[in-house]
Automatic annotation (TrEMBL):
GO CC aspect terms: RNA polymerase I core factor complex
Polar residues: bias regions: 130-145
Keywords: DNA-binding, Metal-binding, Nucleus, Transcription, Transcription regulation, Zinc, Zinc-finger
Protein name: RRN7-type domain-containing protein
Length: 537
């Protein structure tokens, strides 16, 4: 290394490097702190040359063109306009996936486009006229065929007004897609969106790879970070963004959001959780009893909790009905008649075993890793991984983090680099299976339902006049689970599956169920208070 030590210079800029400190390498070139080579070869001092020469200075006449120093990255208004166009292109990819890959109605494109226009309109004077015109053009968003903290339970917007006026993010794009789904009342849950994102089927993680290189190279570094999330999307962040959009549209544009498509969603929950049909009517009646319309109603617009989310309300009503009719504690309860919903007994041992068997078969004999597991891997986990799991992770890393088109455009071709790459060829990875490790296809779901239902047995009917001293009726000795640690094994397995399908975290589901149970207790207390005066009279 040169004895002069590190020197300070202009920002490196290679691959968005912000380093300004350079050191001269042994080959005579300057290198930044991150190892990027800068400039041309420097003429170092020859230590064996003892001759001295007169020091002369020459200066080239400054040309007018030298004053025009063009930056590689856009700044200010131009950077914001480019960022919005990049975000709109990613949103287009997301809608394309929902419409073309998942078969959702084509009207979803129009709905999301209109919501996007309203979201951009909230930026007011920050968006140039050119960008507004671009956003209103349908061809820029077309998916036609010719286009190739407080507590965890608090989901609130501390500075919602500031966030609404700020620039949209990838979470806003996901929120707009889901709001379009709600508007069309489609039986799609946030759990589906989370699953597609985790499997890298829907653009979110490393979404910047969907942009052309020319657009990426002009984006400033802070916009790169926004468009390039590497972590797993959490349900809490998703609901925060979605609720902010809902309330913002309601306050600014008077949009009233429809309720969830309750019949189709309950039917889907019963099918995917292999539950008896008796729970359908019970869930509907419980929702009516609690006066749920399964639409977002926030009394305090600045503070929205889990109990206000219609998705949490619906799945919580179903779970409460399961606990009433098919409890997890294993205690026998005897119905009064054979026509009651609780006249059958669901074997939770078989239910848990069948679901575990399906997951094991989905992983295969090689115990393949899920994308969520590979994203959360640490350095120490490598030592416990099997050889095929290492191969799977390297394929996942290649698809997720290596950007070959961008690398080829940024780095000049050289024979040495090509020869080096030829020594370690990277083969095309095998496409992931259509059946993800987090779900099953329709045939497997039907097989699972049959396996569980064929073991449903009738419960013994006990009349009032029969001489049973110690007998429990359905709904008696009801168990409350306030925290996740209180759940028994069968209940934990059921809660995990229900939360995955509905689109809630495990803790969010536990708390939403507990809120619903407390609301039922409040309703029962109110009803008892109304009955007491009439009985006294």
């Amino acid at each position: 290394m040169d004895e002069s030590g590190p020197v300070k210079g202009p920002r490196c800029g290679i691959e968005n490097c912000r380093s300004r400190i350079y050191e001269q390498g042994e080959d005579g070139y300057l290198y930044c702190q991150n190892g990027h080579r800068r400039g041309e070869l420097l003429r170092g001092k020859d230590e064996d040359d003892f001759t001295t020469a007169a020091r002369t200075k020459t200066r080239r006449k400054r040309d007018d063109d030298d004053e025009r120093d063009t930056s590689k990255y856009f700044k200010g208004q131009k950077a914001l306009d480019l960022y919005l166009k990049c975000l709109q292109l990613i949103l287009r990819h997301q809608v394309w996936f929902l419409v073309r890959e998942k078969g959702l109605p084509a009207e979803l494109e129009t709905v999301v486009l209109d919501l996007w226009a309203l979201r951009i309109a909230q930026l007011a004077g920050r968006v140039s006229g050119e960008s507004q015109g671009y956003d209103s053009q349908s061809q820029a968003f077309s998916t036609s065929e010719n286009e190739s903290h407080s507590d965890e339970d608090k989901i609130r917007s501390v500075r919602r007004e500031k966030k609404v006026k700020g620039s949209p993010t990838l979470l806003d794009c996901l929120g707009l897609c889901y709001l379009g789904i709600i508007t069309l009342r489609l039986p799609i849950t946030p759990g589906d969106i989370h699953k597609w994102i985790t499997e890298d089927k829907m653009a979110y993680r490393r979404a910047i790879k969907h942009l052309p290189v020319a657009m990426r190279d002009r984006l400033p570094a802070y916009y790169h970070a926004v468009l390039d999330p590497n972590g797993i999307l959490t349900f809490k962040r998703f609901y925060v963004a979605m609720v902010d959009l809902q309330i913002g549209f309601e306050e600014r544009h008077g949009i009233l959001w429809p309720s969830l498509n309750v019949p189709l969603l309950i039917y889907r929950y019963l099918k995917e959780l292999a539950l008896p049909l008796e729970l359908y009517d019970a869930t509907i009646k419980l929702g009516d009893l609690l006066e749920y319309d399964f639409a977002l109603h926030a009394e305090d617009k600045g503070r929205v909790s889990i109990r206000h989310l219609p998705e949490a309300q619906l799945i919580a009503c179903l779970v409460v009905c399961v606990k009433l009719i098919y409890p997890f504690d294993g205690v026998s309860r005897f119905p009064l008649t054979s026509s009651e919903p609780a006249a059958t007994v669901l074997d939770w041992d078989i239910w848990q075993r069948e679901f575990a068997s399906v997951k094991t078969k989905a992983r295969g004999e090689v115990l393949a890793l899920t994308n969520e597991e590979m994203i959360g891997l640490k350095e120490k986990d490598v030592f416990s991984m099997l050889p095929h799991q290492l191969d799977q992770y390297l394929d996942f890393y290649q698809e997720s983090f290596l950007d070959e088109p961008h690398s080829e455009a940024a780095e000049p071709k050289s024979e040495f680099r090509s020869a080096l790459y030829d020594l370690f060829p990277v083969h095309e990875s095998v496409d992931s299976q259509d059946n993800s490790l987090n779900g099953t296809d329709d045939a497997q779901k039907l097989k699972l339902v049959r396996a569980v239902h064929k073991n449903v047995s009738p419960s013994r009917v006990v009349k009032e006049d029969e001489g049973f001293v110690e007998r429990l009726r359905p709904g008696e000795a009801y168990k409350y689970y306030k925290v996740a640690e209180d759940l028994p094994e069968h209940a934990r397995a059921f809660y995990e599956e229900a939360s995955r399908i509905a689109g809630l975290s495990f803790d969010m589901l536990v708390k939403s169920v507990f809120y619903t149970e407390k609301k039922i207790e409040k309703w029962r207390k109110t009803r008892r208070d109304l009955v007491k005066p009439s009985s006294l009279a």
